[in-house]
Each structure stands twice: as structure tokens, then as C-alpha cells.
## 1
Amino acid sequence: MATKTETKADEIELGAYPTEAPAPGPSVPATPGSTSTASLDTATATGREVPSLPPVDGGRAAWSFLIAATVIETVVFGIPFSIGVLHNYWATHMFPGHEGTLTLAATLQTGLIYMSIAVLGPVLTAFPHLGRPSQIVGLIVSTAAFISSAFVTSAPQLIGTMGVLFPFASALYLPCATLLFEWFQKRRGMAGGILYSGTGVGGTVMPFIMDALLTRLGYKATMIAVGVAYGAINAAALVFIRRRIPLPSRAEAVGPARRRIDWAVARTWAFWSGVLVLFLSSLGNFNPTLWMPTFADTVGAKKPGGVALVSIMNAASVPGLLMTGWLSDRLPTKLIVFLNCLVGALAAALPWGMGTSTAPLIVFSVVWGLTALSFSSLWTPIITRICQDDPALPTLVFGTFCFLRGIGNFTSGPISTQLLKSSSFKGAVGAYGSTNFGPVLVYTAATVFAAAVAGAFFPA
């Protein structure tokens, strides 16, 4: 005999949302024994009895999912972090004099990854059965982007390959980030920290790998080799990316194939305060990694130089992401958001702002990596608070956050370029007055500090 809870579970799995308000709790079903969602472990979307689902927060299935998702995160986002190495090679060895076109190709790569996730979010929320096919298409197209870019004969062709085709990797990646909400509950912050630490690992390691391969093998062989390795590694990891709660087959589903999206979430304060935090932090987040090589050259910092300082930032973000995720399971989200953004803003204002020598720039790079570059670990607890008990919403909200992140990526270059033309801080102390970076420093610190203030108002 089906219970009322089992009926509600059936409705969620089929996408027919219940009329009553959801009970407070995590945004995804819990382990067997949970008062509100235990029936999900004994009934599928069609209501028939099945063996218990794998446990959350641990077990072979949960950990294999998390490891595989982290591998995909590392590989997919390690490539954009090495785009500076490729950009330099394109400009010096292949297409000198086409700086604008090459910069566009490099900028599109990261920006379109975030923007395409924003488009895919609502699509996969409405049509969850498309999750696996979209991952396969994303893997094939992004792999083809690498291999085809080995045979380009003009700079505009790089826009089509690495700038437009590679961002299809977003379809491969998106389910990795959102199915995390099914596999982890009480340890979700920790799991998110592990997942997002892949970006820091990729950003630290991939530039050196790419530079070494270009030096030894040349461009064509490097792109083919990296493309084949990229496809093989992600294909192997994709085997372990699966749902904890299976969707009903199309033949079993009793209702429309399209899941109704509950847009009521957009009327909550949690949603809009989260949006404000993400938007403000994204405006300044990209500036240090974008401009540190140029800034280091301007002030004469050589050991380490600008590229090494960016690597230090990315390396510091790995323990930063893990620590931030671990703390988010134990402390209020608003407190962690506030402290993360506040310390990041102070780092931009002080050690970077006064960074006319190597020592303060190293301090800044470490602190920035531990805080601002580790902010993505806080996406998980923020999304959990926003989505409450609705398992369909994390994909939608995650897509919205990626859209905001994409805005920050696209605007950071043009805004900071215009700010560099200002001489309003000439004569001020430290790097504010001795370089033309004063307005960029203030803009970066101010936007991240504003995110800290907004975070203080995030609901408990």
C-alpha cells in the first residue's frame, strides 16, 4: 500500500509538483530512514517496489561519482586556465599581428562555457532525460574542437574551434555539478569543495603541461595528443556519472515528458540575495588572474613572475576550496560568504594595492587563492538554501549562477581595460599611484567587498 510520502515521491520523479508546500529539509532525497523521503528508497517514480537506493554521503557509488565528477571538472576547466599559454603561442608562433582575433577566441572559450550552462540549466530541468545524451554530445564536440584546432590555417578558425566548439564541454560538465545534490546531503559542502578543487588543480597543472608539450612536440601534435587524452579521460569518468534516484523510463512515465519548472523560487529573498552575491563577486573575481602577469612586469616582479603568481593563486585555491567546503557544513552560510569576500577584498586593497615588490604579491596570491578563488565552494550551500526540498531546482539555479559568472568573465576585460586608461590615482601610495592599475585595484576590492555586504543579508 502506497503511503502519502510515496505518492509525493512519484510526483517529484515524474515532474508533477505537489500542490502543498514542501517540507523543510535538504534539496534532495535523503538516505533510508529519513522521515520525509524514506519512501524514495523503496519506490521508483512509477510506485513499484525496488531494492534500496545507494546511501547518500558515502558508500562506493557516492564516492565513485564524486571522484569521476572531480576528474571531469579538472580536465574541462583546466583547459581554459591554460588558454594563456595557447594564446601566447598563437600570437608569437602562428598568427602574429592578429591579437584581436586571438584574444576573442581565448575570451569566448571561458565566457561561452558559463553562458551555455545558463542555457542548458532550464532545458535539463524541464527535460531531465536529456542529461546523459547531452553529456555524450558535449564530450564528442569538445574533443573534436581540440583535434580540429590542430589543423587551423588562419586566426579566425580558432574562434570557431576553441572559441565556439570547445564550450560544448559545458553539456558534459553540468550534470556533474547538479547530481552532487542527490549523492550528498549532510556532507554536501565538503563534497562541493572536493569537486570544485578540480578547477584549482587543473589551473595549476595544465599550463605547465601545455607549455611543455608545445615546446617538445609543436602545436599540431600537442593539440591532437591533448584532444585524444581529453576525450579518453572524460569518457572513462563519464561511466560513473549517474543519478542516485533513477528517472522513470519514457514508457513508464504517466504524464508529460516535459517537467514543469517551478519559477516561484525567483520570488524568494534567498534567490535574489544569492544572485546579488554571485553577481558582485564575479565582477572583480577575474581581474587578478587576467592582469597579474602584466602587473608583475610593470612593477618589475621577476622571481616569481606574473605567470608563476597566477599558478600560486590556483594552487592556493585547492586547499581553500576544500577548507571552505568543510566549513560550510559546520557554520552558517552567510558567515562564510561574508568572511570569504571580506578577506578577499582586503587582500586586493592591501597586499596587491601596495604590491610594488615580490613579497606582497606572493602574500596576495596566496590569500586571494584561499578566499576569492575558493568562493565556488559556497555555491553548494547557497543553492541548497535556495532550493529547499525541490530536487528539480539545483540545475536551474546553478545555470543562473553560471550566467552571472559569465557576465563577470565577459565584462572584466573591457571594464578593466577602460579603467587602466584613467590616471585618477596618480601620486597615491603603493601601486595605486606608481602604476596605472589604481582604478582596477579599487574596482576589484570594491566589488568583492560589496559581495561581502550582500552575503551578510543572506537568509540563515
## 2
Amino acid sequence: MPDHGTQPKRLHSRPKTAVAVLFFGLLALVAGVGISVSFGAADIGFLTVWEAVFRYHPDLTSHQIIRELRLPRVLGCVMVGLCFGVSGAIMQGMTRNPLADSGLLGLNAGAGFALAICFAFFPGLPYGYLILFSFVGAALSAVVVFSLGSLAKGGLTPVRLVLAGVTLTALLTAFSEGLQLYFRIGQDMAFWFAGGVAGTRWTHLKIMAPWIGLALAGAIALSRSVTLLSLGEDVAKGLGLRSGPVKAACTIIVVVLAGSAVSVVGAVSFVGLLAPHVARKLVGIDYRWIIPASGVLGAVLVTFADLAARTVRPPYETPIGALIALIGVPFFLYLANKERREL
């Protein structure tokens, strides 16, 4: 049974604040989507955007730009942010690791290496198979990272888990670059290393959407169990939770979300680190609120990062991953400093 010191923490939640975070977060997301769809090389006003969405005329060039280029790009940002935010929240709650993020733990690198193999040995694969390979790469990376982190004396700690992830990321990135040079697939891989959503099309979103929808539904269904896991293994078992099957299901969800996101945006880290931390500070420790809040905040972050990527040095684009890292790296160093005693 949980002790008296754990009980107050278990009950600490702010549902009213959570509702406000979701409401204003969605408002910010809608505003970001509207601005992003309107902004670009071609000057297109809000009224034209509205008409292109709800009264589409295929003969108008401005409508074609909105429907075929800008809308799928912006919706890709939303979906990627949701994936990274929710996967980061689940990883942090499941492992009780404040440093958990799909990029820091090697899942992004694993998915990217799998894509490099596809480009090198199976050129021309349909996008659906690329997503499948991304899932496999992310899953294998997760297994390797957790295994490596558990080998050290004292077991798996947050910092050791991140060190294992960073090590594997460096190794897989080197392998990916080797394949890139040997098979001359640099043009294909440059996008994945830089990170961006410029190439997102409706076909990509249609293939991604069912996977992401199922994973998000599973994340919401397991949110109470993740809350119990975040209180500690003993507390969770004392409250009747079968932690093994729950962790397995959570891992599958994280792999699906991370693999889907990487297949669209490439090597982008820190979204899954930042969004859950901000959500947790605002809404408390109940993952029934943290998971949806992390998804919304992640979507807002990626959407505005993509908007910034197009405005920093026009007409060129700055990689999204670089812009998010400007915030994510200092935040990660701050968290790592708090965890330094775990080394």
C-alpha cells in the first residue's frame, strides 16, 4: 500500500486548469494553423484561405496552393506534434524518467536508420511501407536502449537511460550517414536529418491517420494506468495494476507514435521532452489530463516552429529540429543537472 508521503501526490491534480490549458491551447493551435496556411511565398489572404477550404475551385492557382501544399503541411505539423507530445508523456510516466523523449532515447534514430535502409536497398517503396519500417526501427531501438540502460550496476536510472539512448543515436546516425554516402542517397536522407514537413502531402496524412488515431485512443485508455506507474512500481502493484502488460501496451503506443512522426518530419527531438513537462507543471500529475494537454502543446510547438522556420531567413527554410533544439537543449541540460546524482 502507498505510504502517507505518496498519497497527497497521488491526489494532486488541477482539472479546472487542465480544461483551461486544453481550451486556450486549442485556440492557439487554430490561430497557428490559420496563420501558417496564409503565410508563404505567395501572398494569400484569410478570405481566400477560407474559400479554398470550404468552397474549393480547382481552376484557381491560390486554391491549389492552399489545398495541395499548405494544408497538408500544416496538418502534418499538428499530427507530428501530437505524436511527439503524447509519446513523450507516456514514456516519462511509464519509466518515471523526466528526461524521456523519443529523440533522446534513440527511437528517432532507429526509425531514421530503417528509412536509410529502405532508400538504399528498396528504392521506390510506397509510403505505407516506409511507415512500417519506421515502426520496426523505433521498436528495435527501444529494446536496445532499455537493455543497455539496465546492464549497469544499480539498474536502470533516468540518466543511464538517456546515455544509452544518446550512444545508440550516435551509432545509428553514423550507420545512416555511411549508407547515405555509399549508396548516394544523400538527397533523400537530407530531409530526414534536417527535419521538416515541407514534403508532406495528403497521401502521407491518409496513411498516418489510422495508426495515429488508434495509438491516441490507446493512450487515453491507458492514461489512468500510466498515472499509477508514475507513482512507482510498488504503489501501482499495491493498487492492483498489472504493470507488465500495461508497460508492453504503452511501449507499442510510443513506437507507433514516434515511428509515424519520424516518417513525416524526420529527426526532430525535444518536443516530447518539453510538452509533457509544461503540461505536468500546469495540470498536476494525473495523466488523464497530462496526455491530452501534452498532445495539444506539442502540436502548438511544432506548428509555430514550422511557421518560424519559414520566417527566420526567407525565402530559405530553417530546419524545424534546429529551432526546437534552441529551446530543448537548455531545458534538457537543466533537467540533466537535477538528475546528476543518478550517475
## 3
Amino acid sequence: MTTTYEPAADFDEVEYEAEFDGVAPTTIPDRSGEEIGPRRTVRTSTLDERFNVLGALAGGLAIATLLFGWIGPLTGVIGWIVVAFLAFIGLYMLLVSLRSDFQEVKDRVATVLIVSAGVLLFGALVFIVVYTLIRGAEALPYPNFFTQTMELTGPLDPLSSGGILHAIVGTLIQIAIALAITIPLGIATAVFLNEVGGRFARFVRTIADAMTALPSIVAGLFVYAAIIQLVTHQRSGFAAALAITVMMLPIVIRASDVVLRLVPANLREASYALGTSRWRTVWHVVLPTARSGLVTAVILGTARGIGETSPVLLTSGITAVMNVNPFSGPMISLPLQVFDFVRSPEPNMIARGFGTAAVLILLVLGLFIVARLIGGRGPGQQSDRQRRAAKAESMRDLQRITVLGDRVAAGAYPPRPAATGDYAEPATPPTRPTSEPEDQK
């Protein structure tokens, strides 16, 4: 189905130009007789597109099965998947090229590659989570796994004895200290990079970029040499938190830097035009606008720090007892507890290790949910409680303005100053003149 445009019947272009003193205004070009093809949908697929995908997928699976089972001496599941995918891509290109030009073939193949990459990453994530939960299902049903420590439990004891309470508490304390240092320092550094700038800002951005690729064992060695050997002379939870901070800080800085760059410049200009200082603009305009992105930056940093094992191994030490003092004595964390469990050859200890890994995954998921609830709303979006409070405030303002308007109309506001006494006489309401003044007649 095609659509054509017809010019208006009463349109006179010469007369239209004469109205503007000979200068022709901007007009819509004449599209009479021009055909417009059917609009291509990008969110839904047609029957032909579904046939191409399913046909190429069936052909790729058949070719891989023939090569691995009948024609060639090939074996292995991974090789079969790779051959099937390559055959699928080739057949899909062939099917699309039968009815489309080269540009659309490239577009379709790129779409398939991007979707395949997303499916691959999501499948790997699901496999890791499901495999960990299945292997840890032996230890998770026992309540003592969450309420006891390993102080009185050995490698040969059953799963009904011992737990990881000390590791959960140690992880929460260490990540809390690391966040208390990382969040203000990282966001303040990102604000400096965006709002101040200069040569030193470029140097700081370069250092932050370099630190994102810093090996975790190097951070652990740095804290071990600078803090443990020179200051505390013992492994502790605070030293482990400092090592985690070194790993989290560049992630938070770079992610926050990117988020603050996305804040529109006209918001800052509007704030400056109202006479506001730079730092009030940052505090009341820039940071609230980028709140959800800053929360995402903190989440990325937390995900990097909460799963670190090698720096914690060098700085916190391994213990089987509860320690809530981060400045004295070893304090184990969940990743380090997993490492301590799975290096044992006993099946019960390995089951405890996978159970600890499952608890770590659930803990990270819980922290992400809490962070999203705190800062997941975009700028200007209000919660239900905030909307109800704003509505109630608006109703109070409306009632106050209405009452004030009635008082003004009645002449009771503003009050007339009285000569004597404590009370004021109500002002006489103004009257509208009934006739025109003499000088206007």
C-alpha cells in the first residue's frame, strides 16, 4: 500500500511570496506523486524473518550433527556448538540475501550476532548461579549453617555442625568500611574531574584509568607492606577493607565521571543564571540529576570489592571464630571462607564451600536490590509517600490562598493601622468607577 501527497487546492505560491515582500518563506516541498514504501518494523518480526531464523537454525544443527556423527571424525560438545553456530550464520546470510540487498543482509547478521552475544552472556550467568545453588543445596537447608561458626567443627564433622556466621559478619563489616571510604572519595573525585577540570584533573583521570586494570594481588601487597608491616603489625579486617577500597575506588570514580558528564549543561547554566554558586549547583542540581547513575556506579564498585579474595587473603587472615573488631585480630570474609573450604578434600567441606558461595551471591543480590530501592528513581520521580505529601501541601496552599483572597475581597486584608487601641479597622473595599474620567471623555 502506497501513500501520495496532493497540494492544497487553494494554495497560491506567488501570492504567498508577495506577502513577504518578495522573500520566499520556508515551505513544505511538493510531494505529489511520490511513493512511500511500507514502514519497516524494528520491534516485531514478520513471518519471513521468523522463517529465515528458524530455517537457518535447523540447517545449522543438521550440518553440525552430520559432521560430528556421520561424515567427519569430530567429537566434543563445544566443537559441535561452534560448528552449528557458524553454519547457522552462513545459512541465515544466504536466506536473507534471497529477498534483500547487501545492506539489509549486514544489518540482519549484525543483529543476530548481538543477540547471540547477549544470550551467551546471560546463559553463562544463569549457569554459574544455578550450578552454585545446586552444589550448595546440601548445606543450605541446615539452620546452623547461618547461625554458628567453625570454631568447634572439623573437616570430618557432618553438615549439621558449624556454620559461616563469622564470615557473613566479617564481609558486612569490611564492605561497610570500604563503602564509607569509597563513596564520598570517589564521588568527590568525579565531581572534581567534571566541575573543576584542568591539567591536574587530566592526570587524576589517567591514574584512575590505570588503576581499573590493577591486579588485585598488587593491592593486597601494597596494603600489606604499607599498613600491616609499618603500622598495625597484624592482619585485621580494617586492612582488608583498605585493600578492598583500593580495588573499588577506580571503578566508582570512572563510572561516576561518565554519569556526571551526561548531566545536561543547560541545567548548570540555568542554576548559574539564578545567581547560585558552583557548589550549590553541584549539590542541588548535578548530583540529584545523576543520582540513579551514581547508585549504579556504587553497585559496580561493590560488586568488584565484595568478591575479592587475594587481597583479603594477604591482609585479613583466616580464622574460625567470630571477630567483630576490625582493628584487632584476623577477620575472615565470605570469599576467603569459600577458598578455605574448597581446598579441603572432604566432601562436606566442599559442600560448605559451595553453600558459602551461594550465600555470597544472595547477599550481593540483596545489596543490589536495596541500592536500587534507595536511588533507582530518576530525577524528578517521587515515591507514593512523597506524592501524597506534595498533594497535601498543595491543598493547604490552595486553602490559604483562597481564604486570603476572600479577606482581600471583603476588605479585611491588609489591616488599616489604627490611631488608638490594639485593633485595626478593616479597609474599605475598593470600588470600580462607574463612568469615565473627564479627561478621557
## 4
Amino acid sequence: MDFWPEFLASSCGREFVAGGFGGIAGIISGYPLDTLRIRQQSSNSGSALGILRRIVATEGPGALYRGMGAPLASVTFQNAMVFQIYAILSRAFDSSASTTDPPSYKGVALGGVGTGALQSIMLSPVELVKIRLQLQKSASSHTGPITVAKSILKTEGLRGLYRGFTITALRDAPCHGFYFWTYEYMREQLHPGCRKSSQERLTTMLIAGGLAGVASWVCCYPLDVVKTRLQAQSPSSPQKYNGIIDCLHKSVKQDGYGVLWRGLGTAVARAFVVNGAIFSAYENALRCLVNNGNVQTDHKLE
């Protein structure tokens, strides 16, 4: 009966809940751009604007949100776990720091790497389902994420649900190291002293979060292209690739090295919007929980 108040009274509980709010904000703000990115990566379909016009004209605006149920249903828990794990690991990798001081940048980076590796266990099946839905040309074959997941389990087994797990882990571990390090570094540069005082402006959260998202995507984007192509495969379609190296080799051979950066502009635009929203929602929710509903952050848009 007293679990929830006790949970929110702990720092781990507050990190968990605030991370969930951040994840929801990120998904809702950036999902249409994510659909465009997936379509660009999976085939040579043209520019993001051209794909957007084609989707809206032939499939309707709702197609931009197709497959959102899978990440939205899991994103609260997933993102909550990411921020909670990161808070624990960043401290664990920097045990010399006092509890009142923020972890060092080394602790931040190593904590991010560990967080990315662990979260890929949860993320890989969700992204597989999401990608399969986003690449459908109509909503008729699968009506939602549960149908897709059941179909994968039936035809490919549990191993099929984790198709692309290795490449997901290889992408997410360094990506999260860059992600958290960039956020902590940029927020301190934009508002000196804020890492300890936690009193930065909303614009600082938005910009630092946006730049963190951009940095994390740029450092791992070729791996994300390979991941999308591997996870887009299913037993019902011809198997183009036999693994990470084979996919990388065949993709470059067929379309040139530019294919490894196809859709980067869309991904970067989405990353800035999404991660600005994630960190702003996370920081404000955390402050609200810490101060019992009274957010102390300066919200002046300067």
C-alpha cells in the first residue's frame, strides 16, 4: 500500500519516473521523422520530403505514426530503466566523487556505454517490430505491434524476435556514451555550474539535449543503417544479407559508401527535436518530484 510514496521518495524511484516522462515526450515529438528515416534507410526511395509527400498521398498521414504502439507501449519502462541504470552506473564508475557532486565526465561516458549495452536487450525486439510495421505499404497485413510480434514468434521463434540484437548492442553502447557525455558537457558550457545546482534554463535543456542526440546519431549512423536492413528481412521475403559484415559489404557494393549515411539529415533533425524534448521532460519531472510538485528551474527562454 505504501510502495508508491516510498518508491518516489528514493532517488532511484524519481529517476525511473522522470525517465519515463522523458521517453514519452521523445516518442510523440519525433515519430513521423523516424518513419521517414526508416523508409530512407531500407531502400533508395528518394529525399525525405519526397517520401513524406508519397506517404501522405498514398497511405494517409496516419502512416507516419504506424508502428508507434510498440515503442510507446514499452518506452515508458525502457527509458525509465535507461535513466535509472545510467544514474547508478555513472556513480559506480566514479566512486571517488561525493554524493553531493555530479559524476565526472569519465563516469558519465562509461555509465552511458554500460547503459546502452544493457538497454539493447529490451530495445532490440521493440525496434524489430517497429521497423516491420513502418516498412509496410499498407496497414492490412498486420494490424498492430502485437500481431507482428506473434507472427515473428510463430514463423521465426524467439531467435527471430532478437534478429539484429548484436548490431543493436554494437550501436547503442558507444552511442549512449557519447549521448550522456555530450549532454552533461554542453549543459555545463551553456550554463556554468548547473551540473551541481540543477538550475539551468529550459533553453539549456533543449539545446544540450538536442546536441546530445545529434552527437549520438552521427557517431553510430552507419551501424544503424546496417541494423535497419538486417531487421527489415523476414522469412517471407528474399534473404539479401547473411550477417553484419555481409550486409555492410553488399550495401556499399551496390549503392556506394553514401548508403551508410542515407537518411542522416532526417535522423539528425529528429534527434535534435526528440532529445531536446526527452531531457527537458526528464529534468523538469525530476525537479518536480524532488520539490514535491514545485519546479525550481528557471524557464526563461533567453
